[in-house]
Amino acid sequence: GYLLEVRDLVVRYGAATAVDGVSFALSPGETLALDGPSGCGKSTTALAVLQLRRPDAGEVLFEGRELTALSERELRPLRRRVQPVFQDPYGSLSPRHRIRDTVAEPLKVQGRWNPDTGPAKVTELLERVGLDPSYAARRPHELSGGQCQRVGIARALASEPRLLVLDEPVSALDPSVRAGVLNLLADLRDELGLGYLFICHDRAVVRHFADRVIEMRDGRITS
Ligand code: ADP
Ligand code: ADP
């Protein structure tokens, strides 16, 4: 079965239709890229998949379950399996929290925090994304953009996701560190069998990284 199915998705902002009848499906372990000009509805599609914006019409199915039909309470265990990584490495981390608290937060919120084993789990997650465990005590402003993006990926992994929704995850990074973060994402995908919905407008990256590419324009799929 599919990991993710989007059927006839429609999302409006007031009178403006940002996503206008988009359909696609993604298999476990597959990377599907969304490409297209600024404003064509890529991010809005991502927000709808994450259920951070409820669609006006259409369906979003995760592992065959229709998310749009569920209440917030029913969504909670499924949300864990669909994790976002956003573009702004600093903006997506809480500036006042130490890195270890940011990575531990999903475990605590989800009732999975064990004081005996939690700290080692955080260390393991930081090492998994290529960060020295000594970074645990730092705050975001003490890290580079690339390092912050790795923290964001570690936090996503803490939830044990099946699908990552990556909205321009390397676009805000220094070009010299983009390849390192992309290689990390490729390793995680291969090791953990994660599916990726990957928003990216860098053709070279898309071609290298994605199994399939969907082109959008004015809220619709063009190819
Ligand atoms: P993309 O990610 O492809 O750049 P978006 O999904 O961000 O496109 O935007 C699609 C359309 O929706 C654009 O016309 C944009 O201006 C509009 N839009 C996006 N977010 C909002 C918002 N919060 N309020 C109103 N309009 C928005
Ligand atoms: P890198 O390429 O090393 O991953 P960046 O090129 O994003 O990191 O940033 C270079 C330096 O500028 C880093 O040391 C980082 O601390 C700092 N920096 C970049 N963006 C920000 C920001 N939005 N807020 C604070 N510091 C920043």
TrEMBL record:
The keyword Transport applies. It comes from the Bacteria. GO terms for molecular function: ATP binding; ATP hydrolysis activity. Pfam families: ABC_tran. Transmembrane segments: none annotated. SMART domains: AAA. Residues 4-223 form the ABC transporter domain. The keyword Transmembrane helix does not apply. Keywords: ATP-binding, Nucleotide-binding, Transport. Gene3D superfamilies: P-loop containing nucleotide triphosphate hydrolases. GO terms for biological process: transmembrane transport. PANTHER family: D,D-DIPEPTIDE TRANSPORT ATP-BINDING PROTEIN DDPF-RELATED (PTHR43776:SF7), TRANSPORT ATP-BINDING PROTEIN (PTHR43776). Belongs to the ABC transporter superfamily. This is ABC transporter ATP-binding protein. It comes from Streptomyces roseirectus.
